[in-house]
Amino acid sequence: MNSALKSGDRLSVRKYLPFASVPFWGQFIMPPHEIREPVFLLYCDCKGKRLPQKKQGGEEMNLRELLNESCISFDLLLDSKEAVLRTLSQDLNRAGIVEDPDRFRKAVEYRETLSETGLEEGIAIPQGIDATVSKAAIAYVRLAVPIEWESMDGKPVRHVFLLAIPENGDKVHIRMLSELAMHLIRKETRDALNCIKTKEELYGLL
After folding, report:
1. pLDDT-based confidence at 197, cuts 50/70/90?
2. Which of helix, strand or coil describes residue 129?
3. Which residues does the UniProt record annotate as the domain PTS EIIA type-2 (predicted)?
4. Is residue 131 classed as helix, strand or coil in its secondary structure?
5. Which residues of 56-66 are buried (b: 16+ CB within 10 A; e: fewer)?
6. What distance in Å separates the CA atoms of residue 141 and residue 196, rounded to the nearest whole number?
7. How far, rounded to the nearest angstrom, does the alpha carbon of residue 180 sit from its chain's CA centroid?
8. What is the DSSP string of 11-54?
9. Sequence-ordered list of residues with C-beta below 8 angstroms from that of 155, at least 6 positions apart, any chain
10. Domain extents in the chain
11. pLDDT in tens, 84-95
């Protein structure tokens, strides 16, 4: 954790994030030993103002390029976390992003034992880091019926964004989480996820 960050700064960032504070994001989304600095501080100052791109440490990450069209599904009837992770892993395999879907799924399931990936408002962002991943990507599914998922608010999850990260892709991992979260903290975005009908509409949100 960045030693320059003061307790008051954390409170400022938490105030900016109505559905997921930085400390909880770190605790639930990434295992503690992987936290280098608060994820959102890569993209925001302590008052919640988005930083100029030059201060973010790289070029802007394009979520549309990461979210493969063939890895987007709406209103699937899946009854468990295992079924969701299996389906999304297979989607990533068919898209040529994950070479071995079973190995990748096991990597995701292992991370689920280290930290919970369910946020609030029915959203989960599981992640898998494995050598079988050829490039960073995101797979998404909106479930027809919300399912049980270890989440911050203890409520079922309907929207799952699965992050696939190549081995040694720590910096990409953090930037993917940050960029995706910057969109999902907006209430209008979360509400729209329940209503959109096309992939283009999803791309428009992100």
Report:
1. very high
2. strand
3. 65-206
4. coil
5. beeeebebeeb
6. 12
7. 6
8. HHHHHH-TT--HHHHHHHHS-GGG-SS-GGGGTB-TTSPBPPGG
9. 120, 121, 122, 146
10. 64-205
11. 999 999 999 999
**What average pLDDT does range 156-175 have in this prediction?**
91
* Predicted local distance difference test score (pLDDT) of residue 5: 36
Lookup: tokens for 32: 């503690």
Gyration radius of the chain's alpha carbons: 16
Record the tokens describing residue 36, joined without a space.
Answer: 């280098």
User: CATH for 64-205, among 3.30.160.60, 3.40.50.920, 3.40.50.1010, 3.40.930.10?
Assistant: 3.40.930.10
Task: For residue 141, list its beta bridge partners.
Answer: 73, 160
b/e per residue 97-107 (b: at least 16 CB within 10 A): bbeebeebbeb
Amino acid at 80: S
- Nearest-angstrom CA–CA distance, 169 and 130: 9
Q: Residue 79: what residue type?
A: D
- pLDDT at position 152 is 87
Task: Enumerate the H helices of the chain as residue ranges.
Answer: 7-16, 22-29, 63-66, 81-94, 101-114, 170-184, 187-193, 199-205
Query: Quick one: tokens of 26?
Result: 């770190």
For residue range 29-69, list pLDDT tens digits in order.
Answer: 444 444 443 444 334 433 344 444 433 444 567 899 999 99
Question: Can you tell me the distance from the alpha carbon of 199 to that of 76, in angstroms, rounded to the nearest whole number?
Answer: 14
Residue count of the chain, please give it: 206
